[in-house]
Amino acid sequence: MSRDDIHHEDGPYGEAGERLVGAEADGEDSAVEAALRPKELGEFIGQPKVREQLDLVLKAARQRGGTADHVLLSGAPGLGKTTLSMIIAAEMGAPIRITSGPAIQHAGDLASILSSLQEGEVLFLDEIHRMSRPAEEMLYMAMEDFRVDVIVGKGPGATAIPLELPPFTLVGATTRAGLLPPPLRDRFGFTAHMEFYEPGELEAVVHRSARLLDVETDAEGAAEIAGRSRGTPRIANRLLRRVRDYAQVRGDGAISREVASRALDVYEVDARGLDRLDRGVLDALLRLFSGGPVGLSTLAVAVGEERETVEEVAEPFLVREGLLARTPRGRVATPAAWAHLGLAPPRSTAPGAPGAAGQAGLFGD
Length: 365
Ligand code: ADP
Prior knowledge:
Layout: H1 3-6, H2 27-36, H3 48-64, E1 71-74, H4 81-92, E2 96-100, H5 107-115, E3 122-126, H6 133-145, E4 147-152, E5 159-164, E6 169-174, H7 182-185, E7 190-193, H8 199-213, H9 219-227, H10 233-250, H11 257-266, H12 276-287, H13 296-303, H14 307-320, E8 324-327, E9 330-333, H15 335-340, H16 357-360
Helix pairs in contact: 5-6, 8-9, 8-10, 9-11, 10-11, 12-13, 12-14, 13-14
Adenosine-5'-diphosphate (ADP) binds near residues 38 and 205.
């Protein structure tokens, strides 16, 4: 690929939100996911530690006849936080209310949700780290004492009217537990950190979803989809739907390794789950800058994307996969990156040559 091929004004790789391998839910996901969500803890695949610990928390609460402690779920998008919150409600035989941090801009928004909760209800607060400060402070008291102070009036005449709340279970979800203020974090009785899924677990997710969607899938076909799903069940389910389309239109409807691999080649998701944007970044880093080090801004210009797109959309997965390292002197490709794109690394062993990348990746940008 030459520099001309990859440079366009408006970003040649499309909107990040439209990526087939993006972990955030898109419109189609939201419509289909409800049917694919495991409904009880026993059906939830993977995350064995989280499952065991949560099982104890919920069983103990049920035996005591009380509500479960507040639960904080942290982990990347698409790993099953919303699903787990629904399972918590189902296992407790309780209703669930779903909202999110960005939807609660004023403390009053939160007060009206809290005051309408039923006893034992589960309140799922997605993206809890994005709640406004006043709402967050109101939540402290609600979590601890099941009480809020509603402020009536303004200025010197304003008065705080205490309002008792029924006991409820808050399930907070965040992609970054480190961003939560300690007073909020400390008020959760149980914190679960969700990890990316192992290939075998993702295969099980694919098999389960294929059964629910009534698509015939053999073990190798499921493994092929799982291997391209970036450790994320949401992506596995999305790729399965695209492979199903291909199998239906170009085949007999059944999914084998060959069908899955041909289908995902059409959608430009490679064997390791990299899409065009990821490969564009790696390709520029290797071919135009001999594997680096190169500054983020220069790399972004070469790819024809915004700096933020390269840094926040493409790089995290490339770093996780050990294909790219962020070093104090810039971005560096690892030997695995050359191998993945089928290119031979330059012979030079000078500082900054690809061979040095392994040791250089210890620092941030
Ligand atoms: P999050 O809230 O973390 O973004 P979701 O709970 O919405 O993720 O999960 C995304 C999709 O992935 C759901 O449709 C669900 O079917 C599927 N999923 C997530 N975790 C699992 C799991 N452990 N087993 C089976 N399916 C899962």
